[in-house]
Design a protein that fits this description.
alpha/beta; Rossmann fold; two-stranded antiparallel sheet; about 10% strand; membrane; His_Pase_clade-2; golgi apparatus
């Protein structure tokens, strides 16, 4: 059986080994359908353009909205890196020509781009946790290297940072004016695109970008599972999920035919073309408005793209129904969620460290977290996606804390499995923090259907 090389969204949801944690992926569902613009049937090109997330007018967002007697205590931000150059090459074709040097007056533009370039090019003087020190602080190749962040990717995160700054710093005063290094918690995988995306977001966010106060920790696993990565049952769910994908692909004769046609165009065996994950490269052509590659045998075209993209969307749909990915996600996302509620609990006790946490990550990081939280309608993480946990204190009852969850600016708190019945049971306007704690400490394991009540048991239970 072929593993995780053929293009399908869900396969890339899955870090096959910790080394391969930049794996990419491609499809999403809007959380709240927008009746004005949403096409009645799934349109693969519309989906792909949402995935590109091309920077345009600043978006409306729901971050920071709470009744006036609530005080913002801490914020935990999970991002996917911004737009990047493909990780795969379509065999025997010319790579898309995209310039990964940053040019302040070129589109896409951001008012802070020029200052960001000059700040980064001076070098940090900051010491990051090894091996991050060896990574470049900004993209700078005239022809992008594989997987390199593009100018679009930098601008997407400058925009995210600016948006969060306007809400969390200017409006809610989350950090004091004389903020210190220990009030931030910053963590990234060891890829230049995640480090650079994190730096761009912070540059847009912080009132004074002081290298002495910026320390990134290195996370070797795309699941951000730190010391808790060994989980055999999680891997069993993963193998079953990959088998499900493989069987779905075998049933799709139009997909096979499309790969066959494309393989003829580029003159390689079909299997080799599929292994080159052509959708990754084609999405780059689409996001950057570069025409698809041609050879003397013809051109790869939009119809080919639509067939592969449509299969991905169908794969996502079946993935949600079959629930194998959910099992993988509950175990895969537990360590990072557990770490996050630990940080929140310290904040409820009045501790002032780590008020703002940033995890700069991949689609394979965000996707299991979304799935584990029960956000089954959430679209697949687009470039520069952001998932945010906000912790609030009720000023009238200082011992009571609430939580909000936002995905790309949409409040999805009451779509999560731990708070979807809240309105039926409680008149409180916000989701109680203890709901999230109970979910992470207990209900995640209950959802797996076994008798386990903790992570270690659930990861090693016999007879799965």
């Amino acid at each position: 059986m072929e593993h995780s090389v053929w293009p399908s969204s869900a396969v890339h949801l899955i870090p096959v080994s910790t080394a391969k944690n930049g794996v990419s992926s491609k499809s999403r569902k809007r959380i709240m359908p927008d009746p004005v613009t949403e096409p009645p049937v799934t349109d693969p090109v519309y989906e792909a353009l949402l995935y590109c997330n091309i920077p345009s007018v600043a978006e409306r967002s729901m971050e920071g909205h709470a009744p006036h007697h609530f005080k913002l205590v801490s914020v935990h931000v999970f991002i996917r890196h911004g737009d990047r150059y493909p990780l795969y090459v379509i065999p025997k074709t010319k790579r898309p020509e995209i310039d990964c040097t940053l040019v302040a007056n070129r589109k896409p533009y951001h008012p802070k781009l020029e200052a960001f370039i000059s700040h980064m090019s001076k070098g940090s003087g900051a010491s990051f946790e090894s091996p991050l020190n060896s990574l470049p602080l900004y993209p700078n190749h005239p022809l992008c290297e594989m997987g390199e962040l593009t100018q679009t990717g930098v601008v997407q995160h400058l925009q995210n940072g600016q948006l969060l700054r306007d809400i969390y710093l200017k409006k809610h005063k989350l950090l004091p004016n004389d903020w210190s290094a220990d009030q931030l918690y910053l963590e990234t995988t060891g890829k230049s695109r995640t480090l650079q995306s994190g730096l761009a977001l912070l540059y847009g966010f912080l009132p004074d970008f002081d290298w002495k106060k910026i320390y990134f920790r290195h996370q070797p696993s795309a699941l951000f599972c730190s010391g808790s990565c060994y989980c055999p049952v999680r891997n069993q769910y993963l193998e079953k999920e990959q088998r499900r994908q493989y069987l779905l692909r075998l049933k799709n004769s139009q997909l096979e035919k499309t790969y066959g046609e494309m393989a003829k165009i580029v003159d390689v065996p079909t299997k080799q073309l599929r292994a080159a994950n052509p959708i990754d490269s084609m999405l780059c052509h689409l996001c950057h408005n570069v025409s698809f590659p041609c050879t003397r045998n013809g051109c790869v075209d939009m119809e080919h793209f639509k067939v592969i993209k449509t299969h991905q969307i169908e794969d996502e749909r079946e993935r949600r129904e079959k629930k194998l990915y959910l099992g993988y996600s509950l175990l895969g996302a537990h360590p990072i969620l557990n770490q996050t509620i630990g940080r929140m609990q310290r904040a409820t006790e009045g501790r002032k460290e780590e008020l703002f946490a940033l995890y700069s990550a991949h689609d394979v990081t965000l996707s299991p977290v979304l799935s584990a939280l029960g956000l089954s309608e959430a679209r697949f993480p687009r470039f520069a996606a952001r998932l945010i946990f906000e912790l609030w204190q009720d000023r009238e009852k200082p011992n009571e804390h609430s939580v909000r969850i936002l995905y790309n600016g949409v409040d999805v708190t009451f779509h999560t499995s731990f708070c979807q019945d809240h309105h039926k049971r409680s008149p409180k306007p916000m989701c109680p923090f203890e709901n999230l704690v109970r979910f992470v400490k207990r209900d995640m394991f209950v959802a797996l259907g076994g008798s386990s009540t903790n992570y270690d048991d659930a990861c090693h239970r016999e007879g799965f």
